[in-house]
Amino acid sequence: MRIVDVRATTVTMPLEAPLRHSNGAHWGRFVRTVVEVEADNGLIGLGEMGGGGQSAEAAVTGLKPYLLGHDPARTEALRWMLANPTASLYNNRTQLLAAIEFACLDLQGRELGVPVHALLGGKVRSHVPFASYLFFRHPAEDGTGEIRTAEQLVAHARELVDQHGFSVHKLKGGVFPPDYERECFRALAEAFPGHRVRFDPNGAFSVEEAIRFARGIEDLDNDYLEDPTWGLNGMRRVREKTPIPLATNTVVVNFEQLAANVRDPAVDVILLDTTFWGGIRPCIKAAGVCETFQLGVAVHSSGELGIQLATMLHLGAVVPNLSFAADAHYHHLRDDIIAGGKLPYADGAIAVPDAPGLGVELDRDKLAEYAELFRELGSYPYDRDPARPDWYPLLPNTDWADPS
């Protein structure tokens, strides 16, 4: 095969309600860019990346001079063509590389008639378990979906358990004062005896506040405490003061940081993101390092639609040391751009696709519908809260939202 075209389409996908986080909010929708890589045999491989708009589409199509005529099976060469580590000091293309890698792996699988997991060593599990990913939420435009109180949080989690079968629960914090969020987190854990929990304030706490928070939840059945503070040194100081394992998707997101963490441990569980690490293959390499040094591994979510979810499923299928349920924003979506609609959960897990390539197909009508919605609504500032337009956080943060 040889690549003959590269296309990008930005879409907006509505959410059940705006999701709040330590830096601001997802304003009731995700913005994602769908990438299509076409080969000379007529096959099209699919990729996806976060963000979007004219800049993302231009960045993807700007890669055509690099990609036209390239054999999509040469995925290792892609890394050096698009994201050489020294060149990337000037043109950071890690997420672009990831989207192209997804599409090239998809093309290879389609050409050979095998699923991507077969190209990556073969699956060791046929279903990937997921945690419920819980957020404090602003109400949607129709007034529904707000999550502000412990009662609302527990009620929403119970709906998800009944609907999808989750037995692991992750709460995204860093929005309200730490003592308030600890009360909500404890209420969540106590509402589901026998289930496991994890908390993530996105690095918003000071080291001292993070230690205090950890001591207040040490009796719960914690998987881990994710990014309670910012930076490897901060995480290391917290780790010295709590028996709860620490996890990250912010301070160990490349191999240099992974090496530093092996030499001087600050984090126990590495959350591998197929976008942040530059593709599925780098995540598998990183998982191998973690296996060697006995670090925990989980699959991170950066706000996926069905194409990237498929990459997460193929990653989860082939990594033997996947010791925790994966994260996914997926259940917050109102729809998807893949044929057949959203992939279903069963008993808190999603089946790994076995169709050729990534195992998902574009629904062209949905792609057009949500591309048009993007053109109508445009982007939104991820690092702003619509309820506090003049607010922005410091690290560590002390200016919390008022839960009342």
UniProtKB/TrEMBL annotation:
It catalyses: D-glucarate = 5-dehydro-4-deoxy-D-glucarate + H2O. PROSITE patterns: MR_MLE_2 (PS00909). InterPro entries: DgoD-like, Enolase-like_C_sf, Enolase-like_N, Enolase_C-like, Mandel_Rmase/mucon_lact_enz_CS, Mandelate_racemase_C, Mandelate_racemase_N_dom. Residues 382-404 are annotated as: Disordered. Its EC number is 4.2.1.40. Pfam families: MR_MLE_C, MR_MLE_N. It comes from the Bacteria. Transmembrane segments: none annotated. This is glucarate dehydratase. It comes from Kribbella pratensis.
